[in-house]
Amino acid sequence: MLFSKHHIEFEKKYIFNSTNHTSWAIQNDLINICTSYVRDNIVSEVKKCGMFSISCDESRSHKEEQMSICIRYTNNLEVKERFLGFVDVSYRQNADALYSSIIDFLRFCNLSDIPIVGQSFDGANVMSGQKGGVQTKLKQIYPYAIYIHCMAHKLNLVIVDTCKYLKYLRKLFNGLEAIYVHFSYPSKNKKFNEIQNLLGLKKKSLVQLSETR
């Protein structure tokens, strides 16, 4: 329907057709097409700039370990920050594996030949270590890639410590954690689900608190 509003030939061809193109496969294809289009535009701008900085962070999503890759560059003296994509790093999370994943992804995006002048990660040794960390490995091929400890991670550490220091916040989070622990027992969790069904609520489950952003 969206395409037919802006493309007359498409509308003529499919207006009386029962095909609705809403299957999961078609949706994924459309998303991939849009992704490629947006990424190609970003890469084109980066190549015009001639340099960029990179920021990566990994986190667990469901049963996968994913690393997000973002870049910063300038376009007509305007600083732009763009998300490039996720990389599956479930198999291994050591410095060599993460470094290889980043380089492979940059090659996939046709950005591996563009100089990296800045890199920002968390403070974990595997990423920021001066002896074998990802930042050190990147500097071997991008010598001007200055490493900066991610400000968002630093702020997160400050907030976590502050919450532990303030008594009322400590009680609040301890109470929330206690609720999670209580309903994590199979018998209690079963009753929790039964009550949701009884009230006609959409089934939801409690998740454990995390200090990560």
From TrEMBL:
<feature type="domain" description="DUF4371">
    <location>
        <begin position="19"/>
        <end position="130"/>
    </location>
</feature>
<dbReference type="Pfam" id="PF14291">
    <property type="entry name" value="DUF4371"/>
</dbReference>
<dbReference type="InterPro" id="IPR012337">
    <property type="entry name" value="RNaseH-like_sf"/>
</dbReference>
<protein>
    <submittedName>
        <fullName>Zinc finger MYM-type protein 1-like</fullName>
    </submittedName>
</protein>
<dbReference type="InterPro" id="IPR025398">
    <property type="entry name" value="DUF4371"/>
</dbReference>
